[in-house]
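Sample entry copied in:
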Amino acid sequence: MVKKKKVEGIVDIHGKEYRTVAYRNNELRQQYTIKDGWGIETEMLVNDETKVIMYAKLVDPNGKISGSGHAEEFRKATRINKTSAVENAETSAIGRALASAGFAGTEFASADELSNALINQKNETAVETAIDLFDGEVVSGTEWHHSKVIKDFKGWAKLVCNKRNNCPDMENATYDEATKNPVTLDILEWAASDKFEANRTTQIFKARAQSITEEIQEAKRHDPGEESQEDFGETPF
């Protein structure tokens, strides 16, 4: 079987090829340059504490709209949206405008949109699991009842204090603090992978680790200065 060559900007998700918004925009500019008078205009329709709604349109040299699209992002949907809901909504709206003008390949939704939707779906599943495990002691979104890792994973103290990891100062770390330390971030990435088999008492820790590491990877994909990490670290023992 011949393996298909990977093309930057075209992402395989569940066996289907999705184009990123950046790829679609490049396709547009190859045919219609800015000098030709083609442009993409965006408008913010809603921007409040809960959500952002953006509108985008592709305009030809005569001012005629050749394609348009809307996008909605909720600020509490992911960690990225807490700070970048406007940017994500604008990107998605532009992607849909380009798709409606024919720059979509075989799938109308962009790789960016579908990736965000899958992350949100996984977060919702993780929250449902947490509610079952802790009898509802979880608030909405991805904010868990416990802020410190050690309260969700009793083996955390032993793991961070062993000879290999040797960072006892992270024993009582919060999840946010753990993501800022390279060693403990490696541990969270290990916990999120198939290398860590969760049981009933560690399911919430694994779910939280998956949610956090997925958001970090998504942030790297949105930041051209960061390289996306394809695989998680080895077992941290």
Observations:
- The longest helix spans residues 111-133.
